[in-house]
Design brief:
- The protein is of the alpha/beta class.
- It folds into 2 domains: 89 residues, Rossmann fold (3-Layer(aba) Sandwich); 107 residues, 3-Layer(aba) Sandwich (Rossmann fold).
- It is built from 9 helices and 7 strands.
- It has a 7-stranded mixed sheet, with helices on both faces.
- α1 crosses α5.
- The longest helix is centred in the middle third of the chain and has 13 residues.
- The termini are far apart.
């Protein structure tokens, strides 16, 4: 049986500056049961070495990594609607992992696996170069205070890492409702020679059909927040 998820189980040294803060949210009884019973089915062992993705999923379908899936509502919906693709979700918060496990079991989805890890370390240490068809990053922490901008996950080094892990033609899709962060993302990606912006205007894109609306997003729209989608293709 696989061990329960441990965020520090990824090999290699953790980054000095993390883009997240580990919160101690309480697990419901259902989430605890899911971690006990379903993690061995859907969980990813982040031990030493690069993952064999075809072996992990049992097929050679394209693999998309979703970074920081929260409760996983978008994850299971995308997996259900895009059954010809495999989804590898990366999240550090156990309540969210437990919630997604319950949804995967409820909907009998077979094309999702979950890693409980620092996404940057996981990408760097556990995935082969040019192995991904896509990366999705929805509503990451914007770290709005200037002194915290160094914690934002989207930085030049992150763009370089994604350029290595995405296959040629692979798609990076990001979304945020924090406009200063959207502008920051745009600036970082525009500076990379490895990506081309799929926006005709060179800025933001309409929300694609593959990204479901979340309750968080709907609530934000009611408060007047504008959501910006950014879509880049690996050259």
């Amino acid at each position: 049986m696989q061990p329960l998820p441990q965020m520090d189980g990824v090999p290699g040294r953790m980054r000095q500056v993390r883009s997240f803060v580990l919160r101690g949210g309480r697990l419901t009884d259902g989430q605890k049961r899911a971690l006990d019973e379903l993690w061995p089915v859907y969980g990813v062992d982040t031990g030493p070495g690069v993952l064999d993705l075809p072996a992990l999923f049992g097929n050679r379908n394209p693999v998309i990594v979703e970074i920081g899936f929260g409760k996983g509502e978008s994850t299971w919906q995308m997996a259900q609607e895009q059954s010809g693709q495999n989804f590898l979700g990366v999240e550090v918060h156990l309540p969210g992992v437990g919630h997604l496990l319950l949804r995967l079991d409820e909907h009998r989805l077979q094309n999702v696996r979950i890693a409980c890890a620092d996404a940057v370390v996981f990408l760097r240490e556990c995935l082969a170069d040019a192995s991904l068809a896509g990366v999705r990053l929805y509503f990451p922490d914007p770290w709005p205070k200037k002194r915290h901008h160094k914690r934002r996950i989207v930085q030049a080094g992150f763009a370089d890492l994604l350029a290595r892990k995405l296959a040629s033609g692979g798609v990076l899709h990001m979304a945020t409702d924090w406009e200063p962060y959207a502008r920051h993302m745009l600036e970082v990606m525009a500076a990379s020679d490895s990506f081309e912006n799929l926006s005709a205007a060179g800025e933001f894109c309409p929300r694609p059909d593959w990204r479901p609306l979340t309750r968080y997003e709907t609530r934000g729209q009611k408060l007047g927040h504008t959501v910006h989608d950014l879509i880049f293709r690996r050259r």
